[in-house]
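Example record

The entry below shows one chain as it appears in the dataset: sequence first, then structure tokens.
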Amino acid sequence: MCVERDKVVMLRKEITEKQLSGEGKKVYILLWDRLLARQGFLAYLPIIVAVILLFFGGSWEYFRIHAAVGRYACYALTFWHGGNGVNLYPPLAHCDFLPAATLKVPPFHALPLEYPPLSLVIFSLALFAPLQYYTIVFAILMVLTIVFIYWLLQRYAPRGAALAFAIYLVIGAWGIALGRFDLVPAVLTLICVIAAEHKRWTYAYITLAFAVLLKIYPLLFLPALFMAEQRYAKRFYTPQQSFTLQSLPAELWQTLRTIGRWHWKNTTIFFAILLAVTGCFALLNFQGAVLGQLSYFIHRPVQIESTGSPILFLAAQFGFPVHVVSSFGSTNVVSSLGRYVELFLDVLLVLGYLYALFLQWHGELDLIQAFVAVLLIFLVTGKVFSPQYLMWLIPLLSYSGAYNRIWLIVWIPISLLTTYIFPFIYISPIRLPVPYKPGFIESVMTRNAFLVFLTLAYLFNWWQVRSTRNWGRKEFASSALAEYEGEHEDHYSTSVPLPPLP
């Protein structure tokens, strides 16, 4: 009798432990579901934590001489106050990167060297605070931008996109997110996509125009947006899914024959905004407003983090020496093969860009996928790659639902390596030029290899990497609870109901 009683006690204890363990797991899933909700404190907890981490990560640059934020202040001050504006900035940073001619111009004539003139609006906002707090105020402005992107993703993106954005931003832009203005054109391109998907085409074109006026790269998105608009209006010929190379010219001709039916009003508005804003600045300084950025980019050498940099360092082993120079606001690689490498990358850019537009024309890419594909191609084929360029992609990737397993496997190493390269290797105390610091070239080559692989996988849809739009909602959280309840229905006669998903 005692043995049987002990067996009963042990059985009841085992059942009780399983029930307690099951309840704990259920509570964990419920909390996770609240974290992915659209509203509530827990829903915004990830971005609160992310902002704190980003403030800490960017603190190394707040009071650093020659910081990028200091360049923004120099541009704003010389525009509003002329060449004498550099004397207003405290010794925290120096404006010695500016050409000597800039120091002699009157107010409203000095324009940024590498940015479109409208970027002065962003640079000038932090001038309303005392100049010694410029970097802190600028960081606060970027925090507001980050929170706004988070809110947009919470409202319009698939479930879990906002959380993915917070995580991607911390691991990929930990040291620079609050010290660069790249999130401003990034949020404008995100709004463009959201407006287009809600068939607010005029708003989409307007936001894209202002994104181009802040950074030139969003101009690459215009053909994709135009194609999406014409297809929605049923004024764009869609080719047959099974056409061959022989029938390609005929399909293209069929598309071009409908050009008279295409909608041009929004495209006209887009170019009118560009011409009006650029024209106003051109009246002040034509060279700086129209030709400055183009000349700056053309004459800029291969930057050390770009895809072409490891090629030049490898060629140095075969008799083509390289020189590391600090110019154009970055560290660059100069070689006799530099122009050939640039030409090779330009050819790849054109081919990849045309192929991405071809995929959209063929109906294999929707608008957000076309934006992501074009941006990936631009990053891997550009002769310049700065760490903040990841911030152009992060909101679009989050909105597209790019946070399933294959994306986590590929994108997280890209982000971590980028953060390791900058700021950690750049500011390491080792007294060597950056390209010769231990681990730099290896990290750049590995990161760029991941990016090239991801770009190819996206273009050719390996492992269905583009099939991310349905990822979210049940797949991300609530299905875990449903699966759990199905597995444990023997232990529970009732289940704790979840509130309806927004």
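Notes for this example: The first helix runs from residue 2 to 35. The mean pLDDT is 85.
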